[in-house]
Design brief:
Radius of gyration: 20 Å
CATH class of the largest domain: Mainly Alpha
CATH superfamily of the largest domain: HPT domain
Strand content: 5-15%
Mean pLDDT: 88
Helix content: 55-70%
Number of helices: 10
CATH architecture of the largest domain: Up-down Bundle
Number of domains: 2
Largest sheet: 5 strands, parallel
Shape: elongated
Order of helices and strands: HHHHHEHEHEHEHEH
Distance between the termini: 40 Å
Oligomer: single chain
Number of strands: 5
Length: 266
């Protein structure tokens, strides 16, 4: 890529990002401020995707300050997607932090070549302070493969307390125990192919247990299925039994976070 093309890409990045901040991010933040936890799921999803897009392009073009700040804001929207109840409400303080982040990103884009020298430590510190709230999120990773289980645990530990189970039987026991202790799991990742009790049967038993206890739909565990093969019958059955999304192995952080968006697309 020659310098002319570099300049064209950067100018387009600046123009489109400034436009998105003004026409998409700020209106959605105002809606979030107005509606709070009752806001349309599409608002949270859109905010995440815009910040994710800015972060990815800033990383590709080498704008480290923009990448770091937009990444922190993106992480906050991931928490909002994981939690739509009283534990992590997008209240005035959190929204003020996000507006401050938008203002600082705008300053960076208006002087893109000097963006590295724009101070943003205060905004980053405030966002990171909110991100510490992630310890209220409880995640269960269910997979009989040790490497896959530990990889998912490492990625998802960034978003909450992350526990593991090596098979469906362990998962069902952990799920019931968590409810008995009054501290249920918010997110479960479930491998489909497991010995003894596979992921689909485990999912079915979890949904039956929730239904028998009259647990509200919005408060039931979100289940993300993981599979090594795109077997349509297994995937269709997983959705019929009540999973919210699935991803194919091998997976990475981007695949997992993109899957979380699907929880709130409808």
């Amino acid at each position: 890529m020659n310098e002319l093309h570099d300049e064209e890409i950067i100018n387009r990045f600046v123009t489109e990002s400034l436009d998105l901040l003004e026409t998409a991010v700020e209106p959605d933040l105002l809606a979030l401020e107005r509606e709070g936890a009752r806001v349309s799921p599409a608002i949270i999803t859109n905010l995440f995707r815009v910040l994710n897009n800015i972060k990815e392009i800033a990383d590709m073009l080498g704008f480290e300050a923009i990448k770091t700040l937009s990444s922190a804001m993106e992480e906050l929207f991931i928490l909002f997607m994981l939690f739509r109840d009283e534990k992590l409400v997008p209240d005035r303080d959190k929204i003020d932090v996000l507006f401050a982040g938008v203002d600082k990103l705008r300053v960076m884009f208006q002087d893109i070549n000097g963006s590295a020298y724009v101070p943003y430590s205060d905004e980053l510190e405030r966002i990171n302070g909110i991100l510490e709230s992630r310890n209220v999120i409880r995640i269960l990773v269910v997979d009989d493969e040790f490497v896959s289980r530990k990889k998912a645990q490492k990625i998802l530990s960034q978003y909450g307390e992350c526990y593991t189970a090596a098979n469906g039987t362990e998962a069902l026991e952990a799920f019931r125990l968590a409810h008995a202790e009054g501290n249920p799991y918010n997110l479960i990742t479930m491998d489909i192919q497991m010995p003894d009790m596979d992921g689909i049967e485990t999912l079915e038993r979890i949904r039956e247990w929730e239904e028998s206890r009259n647990i509200e739909f919005v408060r039931r565990a979100k289940v993300l299925m993981l599979t090594a093969t795109e077997a349509k019958n297994a995937l269709f059955k997983s959705f019929r039994k009540g999973c919210e999304a699935y991803i194919l192995k091998p997976f990475d952080k981007k695949k997992l976070t993109n899957a979380l968006c699907k929880f709130w697309d409808t």
